[in-house]
Design brief:
159 residues; alpha+beta; Arc Repressor Mutant, subunit A; Alpha-Beta Plaits; 7 helices; 4 strands; elongated; Dimeric_a/b-barrel
Length: 159
């Protein structure tokens, strides 16, 4: 990984790309009063340094019919089964995030479903994985905060 120190221009470029990863470099350049080539070079350097890793697309899951979100804590019979259980969880496409955790749960998952019936089916799939002792589910009523920019700005202040 290349060493790279971010400056204010890099912060502004990242800010715009976090807002919309599809923003053309020419638009970023116009707003920052620099050339599109400069934007391209800086983004490339940030990619080479491992600061930018790929890009992502944000979907409106509600419009796609998957607005129901549940968080499922998974208790394992033995922690030695973690890798096996994660491999089985990875086979369930509606489990969009899984974390190995300390504390109450061994694994903590985010589930996207069409409705409560569908969520129940997914949770039963999790329960049926060999090595899972039990699960505990929390239903999300609303995603109130999902803001990557606040964290990015805080990180930049520390640099």
């Amino acid at each position: 990984m290349a060493k790279f120190k971010l400056d204010e221009t890099d912060h502004q470029i990242l800010d715009m790309l976090i807002e919309n990863t599809r923003t053309p470099f020419t638009d970023i350049a116009k707003k920052l009063l620099i050339s599109a080539g400069t934007v391209h070079v800086r983004v490339k350097k940030m990619e080479e340094a491992g600061i930018i890793i790929g890009s992502s697309l944000t979907l409106d899951y509600q419009k796609l019919g998957y607005a129901f979100i549940a968080y499922v804590g998974v208790f394992l019979k033995n922690t030695s089964q973690t890798k096996f259980v994660l491999e089985r969880i990875n086979e369930i496409p509606f489990v969009t995030v899984a974390h190995v955790t300390t504390g109450k749960f061994n694994v903590f998952c985010k589930v996207r479903a069409r409705n409560t019936q569908h969520a129940k089916e997914i949770i039963f799939q999790l329960d049926d994985i060999e090595g899972v002792y039990r699960t505990e589910t929390m239903i999300s009523l609303e995603e109130s905060i999902n803001d990557k920019k606040r964290l990015m700005h805080s990180i930049f202040k520390d640099l």
